[in-house]
Amino acid sequence: MTRRDASRWHPAEYAFWALPIVAYFVFPDHLALLAQIAIAALFAVSLDLILGYAGIVSLGHAAFFGIGAYAAGLLAQAGWGDPVLGLACATLAAAVTGFATSFLVLRGADLTRLMVTLGVASMLYVLANKLTDITGGLDGLQGVEMKPIFGQFAFDLYGKTAYVYCTIILFVMFWIARRVVHSPFGLSLQGIRQNAVRMPALGTPVNARLVAVYTLGAAYAGIAGALLTQTTQFVSIDVFSFSRSAEVLLILVLGGIGSLYGGILGAVVFMTVHEYLSGIDPLYWQFWLGLLLIVVVLFARGGIMGTLRLASKVRA
Amino acid sequence: MTVLFDGIASGLLLFLISVGLSVTLGLMNFVNLAHGAFAMLGGYVCVVLLNRYGVPFLATLPIAMIVSALAGVVLERTLYRRLYGAPHLDQVLFSIGLVFMSISTANYFFGDHQQPLHLPPMLSGQFHVAGADIGAYRLFLIVVGLVLAGGLQWLVTGTKFGASLRAAVDNPRIARGLGIDVDRVFVVTFALGSALAALGGALGIEMLGLDPEFPITYIVYFLIVVAVGGSGNIKGSLIASLILGICDVEGKYYVPQIGAFVIYLVMVVTLIFRPQGLFGRMAAK
């Protein structure tokens, strides 16, 4: 299959995007969960942009998720509760943070990057914990009140509006991301991941590209964070936590790194299993999570997408 | 003075736990985020022996080290060795998986509360020297830490085993050609790293506490030590631990508003100027 074909929409993709619409009618009682899945999926896509395409490892991607969440929350708390305005501001805040910290990430190799990203997220966590006047500290940000979307669609108890809102945002952002990764810019990122020494010889400004994609990934994560705030009308300090960074990495690996659908599939499977297992026993779900992670790393490196691809090759 | 002393003690405690990580991560080039899990194992072995079976505190330490070393050997043989040479990301994910499993296992057996530790009278209490209050236990930590630092430095740079280890890491193929049993060297090193973690975990209960979340709460600290000190470098880890311990304690004491912020700042600033750590050598690849 050539690149030209890959950028065109495959029939299976149309079918895939019909599923959220079907889900709306099939699981009317689980719309809140479905909205959470959409948010997790968007967060995973944001990490995929920087990790799967540009090859930047990060243990602190929650930093941008948290920035987006707090930006949207603080804005709504101050009275500007319009969701779309909140999204825009959260995106901007996360992008600015991403841009500023991208220069730290450029330095050093994998290990340094892991540590620096982890350090940035940890600093923000401590900061959010200490600035109790602004963030509410460990109690979380209270009094977030969202206005109806475009003044028309109010958030309801059943999560109908939240689900439709999150899914539409996910689709739009996915569509943009899909355009980006198939553009020359996206291809140059893959080139950098595969051989960072050779790309300058082809005339690619490696550092500028990495800064750009890191900023973009941060902006995406910010949107996911803002969506979480707006649908739950609450911000917990947990948005900056290490477990959240680890979780999104896990979702992405489970689904398959380096293909946008991997993040989405990973989110669907992860969140469903989470809901199911923690329903049985909230304490030991972590055990199965850990086991799953080890199995995926050792035996199914490509995640769900990789396994699917392998299966279709075997059949052909 | 007291604050400085506490800082040094907490720095050496940090060193005790993270030096094991410096060995596995730095010398074997394996990003082992599950290091805290081995420390936790050591801590629990110590607490169980002490509280349930009445074994003296000092006698529990070697047992904790042996148990953790055995666990290390088993895991190295069955799982870890498959990932030598794998991308760092795989190693990170794999060891996060181990961390999650260890947390829920500890939760299952011991519950989620803090474990109490009763120190022997010899090590509790404090005395006054030159206007500073010196806790006996902290002094004990400092002595153990310094002795261990000297011993390890000698082991890595001054013995035949250390030389084989460095050779095995730098170039496994040629090391094999020279008759070094690379597999065995790695197993022994990994066991050593796990045993050191267990020692640190057991000694750290008094200051850090012990609950199932231990591996996640403190992994950041251990990684910071290794990142700042430069991996695979005993002297670097020691100095980095001291800097971080002192900064952490002084920071929390004098500017409590920003408290824990200080050590992250130290780390990020260090890594900006010296991506290889303070004493790091360029990664051997």
How much of the sequence of chain A is in beta strands?
Answer: under 5%
Q: Number of DSSP helices of chain A?
A: 14
Radius of gyration of chain A: 19 Å
Name the helix and strand elements of chain A from N-terminus to C-terminus, one letter apiece. Answer: HHHHHHHHHHHHHH
Task: Tell the overall outline of chain B.
Answer: globular
Q: Structural class given helices, strands, pairing of chain B?
A: mainly alpha
For the residues shown, what is the average pLDDT of chain A?
Answer: 84
Gyration radius of chain B (Cα, Å) is 19 Å
Greatest interface: A-B, 42 and 44 residues
Shape, per Cα inertia axes of chain A:
globular
Average pLDDT score of chain B: 79
By CATH, the topology of chain B is ABC transporter involved in vitamin B12 uptake, BtuC
Write down the oligomeric state.
heterodimer
Uncertain residue ranges of chain A: none
The termini of chain B sit apart by 44 Å
What structural category do the secondary elements of chain A indicate? mainly alpha
Tell me what portion of residues of chain B adopts beta-strand conformation.
under 5%
CATH class label of chain B: Mainly Alpha
